[in-house]
């Protein structure tokens, strides 16, 4: 699995989790949903993603690194 795929999967999971928590626990969990969405939005423009930095330090490859390794 690559960094890019992991970010999409994690973001989707966090959004669904926070929506469920806002339904069953407290509507304030929707602030977490907004945070994840805003982070995805700014990442699309700036290329800066804190989760990507963490995943790269852990050793997960990016799409570019994986393509280079298989070529």
3D architecture notes:
The chain has one domain. Helices cover 79% and strands 0% of the residues. It contains four helices and no strands. The longest helix has 22 residues, at 3-24. The protein is elongated. It is mainly α and 71 residues long.
The arrangement of helices and strands along the chain is HHHH
Question: Number of helix segments?
Answer: 4
Poorly predicted runs: none
| Proportion in helices | over 70%
Distance between the termini: 17 Å
Mean pLDDT over all positions: 94
Q: Label the overall shape.
A: elongated
Described by strand count, sense and barrel closure, the largest sheet is: none
- Strand element count: 0
* Helix vs. strand class: mainly alpha
| Radius of gyration, CA atoms, in whole angstroms | 15 Å
- What number of structural domains do the residues give? 1
In terms of topology, how is this protein built?
Elements: H1 3-24, H2 30-46, H3 50-58, H4 63-70
Helix pairs in contact: 1-2
Give structural attributes:
mainly alpha
Offer a quick outline of the entry.
The chain has four helices and no strands.
């Amino acid at each position: 699995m690559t960094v890019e795929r992991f970010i999409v999967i994690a973001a989707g999971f966090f959004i669904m989790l926070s929506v469920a928590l806002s339904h069953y626990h407290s509507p304030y969990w929707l602030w977490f949903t907004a945070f994840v969405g805003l982070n995805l939005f700014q990442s699309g423009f700036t290329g800066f993603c804190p989760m990507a930095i963490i995943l790269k330090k852990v050793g997960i490859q990016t799409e570019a690194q994986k393509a280079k390794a298989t070529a």
